[in-house]
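Observation: inputs received (chain + NAI).
Thought: call the complex predictor directly.
Action: predict_structure
Action Input:
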Amino acid sequence: MIKVGVVGSGTMGSGIAHVFAQYGYSVVISDLSDDILKKAINTISENIERQIKKGILKVEDKEAIISRIRTTTNLEEFSDVDLVVEAVVEREDVKREVFSKLDKIVNENCILASNTSSISITRLSKSTKKPNKVIGMHFFNPVPVMKLVEVVRGFLTDDEVVNKVVEISKSLEKVPVVVKDFPGFISNRVLMPMINEAIFALQEGIADKESIDSIMKLGMNHPMGPLQLADLIGLDVVLDILNVLYENFKDPKYRPATLLIKMVEAGHLGRKTKKGFYNYD
Ligand code: NAI
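Observation:
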């Protein structure tokens, strides 16, 4: 079985490490400090407990899963992995630096995947000497629950690498869907304009927030309304992704709603700050 490295142990990195370890892979996960890594292991333990309560896992699985995850603050320990999934903050400069470091450490057949929501895989691939081995492996939050992996084929990615990542995603009981490397891929290119339009509708006073969310839930069968979903994702993240779409396509249809910009300026970022379109006190 291949060995897996995960860079970044936040919301996504911890979920990705969890799922790989759950399906028998040995995983090494890195972050900037031991404290952050300790928190990530705690989060994974709590999430395993939740799966045990739901009957998805057995009590004895917990120790086995945790024992397959090794933590480190030193990327040099990635020298023997076959696949790296990068899940550091959504900043191109930080990701480029991670890719360029990994390029010097990993073996020549290692696949370098990014969990980015919106950054160009092709540009990231150019910070390595093997852009043909670089690919997008876009998991969704919460990773142990969500079935989709959006597999993003960069302009230089080998077919063999795409096939391998599809196969690996299936081994995690996920459903891989392959798309080309265009801004926002498919998921965010379709989702973000919908959320933005809901914010425009609110800003224009066409309906209040509850009405907008009810219409999309009851009329379109969405599990949550667009404004509730924006609060869950984080309004800063929504704004960042809309800006990526706007700047890359140079099309005004992606311009972020002024209300969204103002809310981010005010620090009303959604659930994580307890205030967004709704209050979470
Ligand atoms: P997060 O902020 O929870 O975690 C990022 C982690 O990266 C932090 O623990 C941070 O300490 C670490 N980090 C920063 N620089 C590092 C470096 N140089 N080396 C090692 N670790 C470093 O962020 P989150 O939400 O987990 O997002 C990570 C990536 O996943 C981003 O690219 C994001 O766009 C993407 N993503 C996020 C989703 C979400 O719902 N949160 C969904 C799908 C993708």
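Thought: report the result.
Final Answer: The longest strand covers residues 134-139. The pocket of NAI is lined by residues 7-13, 30-32, 36, 87-90, 94, 98, 115-117, 140-141, 233 (CB under 6 Å).
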